[in-house]
Predict the structure.
Amino acid sequence: MAPHKFLRLLIISLFVAVATVSARHSPGIHNQQTHNGVPQTHITNKMVVRNDHGNSDSLNKICSKTDHPALCIATVSRFLEGKPTVDNTFTASVEAASSFGHHALREVKKMAQRSSPGMRSTYQDCIDFYQTALDSFHKTLEAESGHDLGTMKTQLSSAITWIETCNDEFAESSGGPSPLESISNKWQSMASDSLAIVDQM
């Protein structure tokens, strides 16, 4: 990785670390709860079949306060269990974003295998960025178990940054748009919606 790229990633990592420490020491924020050292909330790749629970108005109200209401409803409803509340809608939104992220990671790995030698390092960087973004979604749900809103916001913002960094890599390497732009844009939108739901807590 080029020195200027390494420096940029170092700056991003330092920002996330400082923001996380700051969030954990903010008033009114609780520490993460664990059971035998295992976070009580975790990401699952299992898709929940949508139940016709007749609470679409509640979900519509929550999603209407995001930047992408239609996307929010479509993605969250597939992972939502029980009557929609802000808390379980948030959990579903992060699980949906994580599930989509695993799909995005599989796609970039396939593209990397078919890429030209000159672009393989860029694809490998994106694989690393996407994996780091997925880690941020996991940490978001860990923070949710302790209702640590500051860390939840920090980790979601971090995920958005790492996803966008992949697009930046392609712009620098090829001078053109990223072949992952449509995937990245949807993934960022899902993360953005999760952030908007945090603000309703």
User: Anything to note?
Assistant: The radius of gyration is 17 Å. The chain has a mean pLDDT of 80.
